[in-house]
Write a structure and sequence with these properties.
single chain; alpha/beta; 7-stranded mixed beta sheet; 13% strand; binds pyridoxal-5'-phosphate
Amino acid sequence: MMDTIYFDNNATTKVAEEVLDQIRPFYCELYGNPSSMHTFGGQIGSKIRHAREQVAGLLGCDPVEIIFTSGGTESDNTAIKGALAANPNRTKIITSRVEHPAVLTVCRDLENHGFTIVEIGVDNNGRLDMGQLADQIDETTALVTIMYANNETGTIFPIDEISKMTVENDAIFHTDAVQAVGKIPLNLEQSHVDMLSLSGHKLHAPKGVGILYVRKGTRLSPFMLGGHQEAGRRAGTENVPGIVGLGKACELAAENIEQENDRIKYLRDKLENAILKSCPDCRVNGDRENRLPNTANISFEYIEGESILLMLDQFGICASSGSACTSGSLEPSHVLRAMGVPFTAAHGSIRFSLSRYSTEKEIDYTIEKLPQIINRLRELSPFVKK
Ligand code: PLP
């Protein structure tokens, strides 16, 4: 039996050792408040500035466009509510049916406050219906909030094309890039994205830190009110260890992204192809041509995803049966339902999400164990004709 095999990196990631080394002094030695007048606290300001530069380096933007937040959920809330508050004359919000709840729940709640919400659909492969978007976007559209890449299937959306439409209609474009940053190269300077959310714990930084990128000139009302931190754009004493760690994690991601992506994709494809070959009645969910290199979402007909997870767990293999936030509920994932995945297949879906720490040995072990698990569960399933 191997040690824990962690294939749930879209839920959260291990903090990189290099990141932890950078963070440690900020708990018991360099613990000053960057807003203090004394040198002890004041010296922290330069560390935050450095972290801001490191994040901007990964995103290809200006450091002043970075606002540190507590994570993806806060960044999404700030972007959506802040953009609407700053642009009160428009009332339509366009989003997609497959967003994370940090976007979808906020938008649906705004429907109770006089906004019109349009949720753009996806096809069977999880690709956004660009025709529907073109039909819906107009001069009443305040905000388009559409994710960069889907957390469950890894499908990447056509961000450049969407952003051009928002420019033509003078609408603000926010993208939840929590799953994309660190996994695929981005360059915000060359894009028309107005706002972008990132979460530290998805790219080997600690939990509880993230950023909202806000393009210079984008009107945004602050969401968190209080002190003058982050140039008055986000109140609250800075999470200095988290910010320093996020900076380092972004620097590492920028260094690793090209060479690591090929290796991770090779491992993901090896796993996926072996499963498709050895297990009948299974399918890959998502756009196989345009996906995050680390994500495989596979549906196994006639069996429950939860049962597969429990049996994988007995072999020390961690995976997920949907997004981290929705697993635990018996409802099949809203993403797979939006894609029209048949109910029987959606119920038996498993997401494997790899990281730069995933190894070929772990993939080979999983390839050996998974078919045994699937066969065993199908023998027990009342839905399989015997
Ligand atoms: N957006 C997406 C696409 C996510 O996958 C997640 C987390 O799973 C979030 C937002 C929320 O981020 P956080 O956990 O940092 O609040």
